[in-house]
Specification:
single chain, 284 residues, mainly alpha, Serine Threonine Protein Phosphatase 5, Tetratricopeptide repeat, 13 helices, disordered N terminus
Length: 284
């Protein structure tokens, strides 16, 4: 009896033939994906280069950089603070004040921002408002301050207190700040004024001597040196210091007044005046 040939076996999906078709399909698919990525990269590269050039253009100066950042990241306390500090350095105090206040609206517990506001208020002669800012700093967490920059608020607060007539407390903060950073010229002058008001004339002379090493052309310090010498009945030294102050700025109101007083040309009973000054940030 002839036997029938067995029927061909059915190939399972996982057979070699099936796997070969799948591999080919994957190869075609992978090649297409690679080409798509290459085309995408080629298309995106000009956009990336363009955006990079635009961003690098913002770095041409701090004004353009911080202005652009403040427009796009106006809810960032750091960005707003940076824009304010750039305006403050340029002398735009009101513009800087506006940005500092906006930064505090985002996050209020920023001691360094409150300090910058206080410094602007001092420069604008808004002393009581500045005092309130320092009170906030002293009762806060000190965010933004550390051992390397805490002299800033100490010297500025000390100056403010001397300006407000609180000489003893002001001298304390000034001394603390100057121990940390002795190159704060206006602080030496303010300390000398505080010491002179407390009749510590020798200490005041030493403070002015240290201050003049920091800034030998500070007219206020030469003026104050003349006054303190006069208080100490050292007429020759007072005259020499006054001449130096006149040579630096004869039109300075306090210097002009003291020139009249110390040379006997002022009205009867007129007294010599000590002078306080504080520069804009970044200046002596």
């Amino acid at each position: 009896v002839a036997l029938a040939a067995p029927a061909p076996a059915m190939r399972r999906p996982g057979s070699r033939s099936s796997r070969g078709c799948s591999s080919a399909a994957v190869g075609v698919s992978g090649s297409a994906a690679a080409r798509a990525w290459r085309w995408a990269a080629a298309g995106l590269l000009p956009i990336y280069v363009w955006n990079s050039n635009v961003r690098m253009g913002h770095w041409r100066g701090p004004s353009a950089l911080f202005e652009t950042d403040a427009q796009h990241w106006y809810r960032s306390a750091k960005v707003l603070h940076s824009k304010a500090s750039e305006l403050q350095a340029r002398g735009d105090l009101q513009g800087a004040l506006d940005y500092y206040l906006r930064s505090l609206e985002v996050f209020d517990d920023q001691a360094i921002t409150d300090y910058c506001i206080a410094r602007i208020l001092i420069n604008l002669d808004r002393f009581q408002e500045a005092r309130e800012r320092f009170d906030k700093i002293l009762t806060g967490h000190g965010i933004g301050f550390h051992d390397g920059n805490d002299f800033l608020w100490m010297t500025d607060l000390g100056y403010l207190l001397v300006r407000l007539g609180v000489s003893k407390e002001g001298a304390h903060y000034l001394q603390e700040g100057l121990q940390r950073m002795p190159y704060s010229c206006f602080a030496w002058n303010a300390l000398a004024v505080a010491q002179a008001r407390q009749e510590q004339l020798q200490a005041a002379l030493q403070s002015l001597t240290d201050g003049l090493q920091c800034d030998p052309d500070a007219v206020s310090m030469w003026n104050n040196l003349a006054v303190i010498y006069a208080y100490g009945n050292m007429g020759q030294q007072a005259g020499e210091a006054l001449q130096r102050a006149l040579a630096l700025n004869a039109s300075h109101p306090t210097v002009a007044h003291n020139a009249m007083v110390l040379t006997g040309r002022a009205a009867l009973g007129a007294q010599p005046q000590l002078d306080l000054y504080i520069p804009f940030p970044g200046r002596r």
